[in-house]
Amino acid sequence: MKRYTSTKGGFTLVELLIVIVIIAILAAITIVAYNGIQNRATDSRRAKDMSNIKTALMAYDAANGGLPRVTTYLTTTYSGWDMSAGTSWLSFLRTTNGTMPVDPVNSITGTNPPATGNTVYFYTCYPAGSGPLPATDNARIGYHKTDGTLVYNQFPVTACT
User: Fold this and answer.
1) What distance in Å separates the CA atoms of residue 16 and residue 34, rounded to the nearest whole number?
2) What is the per-residue DSSP string for 144-158?
3) Is the backbone of residue 112 left (phi > 0), alpha (psi -120 to 50) or beta?
4) What is 3-50 written as a DSSP string?
5) 13: which of 27, 49, 76, 90 is 20 to 30 A away, CA to CA?
6) By the 8 A CB rule, do 151 and 145 touch?
């Protein structure tokens, strides 16, 4: 009587470990790429929000002959800051534009929104010749990117009232 032996073989332990390691490496690469995509998406949203806020501020300036000075968080003698973490965030715009966008993280420590580590949108209106600023009234809006880089936009306005 002839015995048949199977020539089919399974995977060896070494082959299985190699496959598991390859899958783990691919998973790690995917997670890192996903985090980068999330950060870029958040920064993209912040840039779009700032564009919308600037448009609303410029429309308000054109309709009212200036933008209000803010005294909510007075950090200098020139003007104060309005921050998206505060309840008064651009309240003068809400009557005509509804709610205003807020930073996705929206956290702050202290009273100076442009300081490193603060993740809020901020707004201020400086009167002409305030400190090192230009000799015209200027509004400033900004935010911190995910990597901590400060991004702001300063533009002339009719007046800071």
Assistant:
1) 27
2) E-TTS-EEEEEEE-S
3) beta
4) PP--------HHHHHHHHHHHHHHHHHHHHHHHHHHHHHHHHHHHHHH
5) 27
6) yes
Residue entry with tokens 């995910």? 146
- Determine which of 3-12, 56-65, 85-94, 110-119 has the lowest per-residue pLDDT on average: 3-12
* CA dist., res. 58 & res. 32, Å (int): 39
pTM: 0.75
Name residue, tokens 């809400």.
94
Q: How far apart are CA 82 and CA 161, in angstroms?
A: 15
pLDDT digits 0-9 by tens, 21-66: 999 999 999 888 887 888 889 999 999 999 999 999 999 999 999 9
Question: Which sequence spans correspond to the domains of the chain?
Answer: 13-156
- Alpha-helical segments (H) within 65-90: none
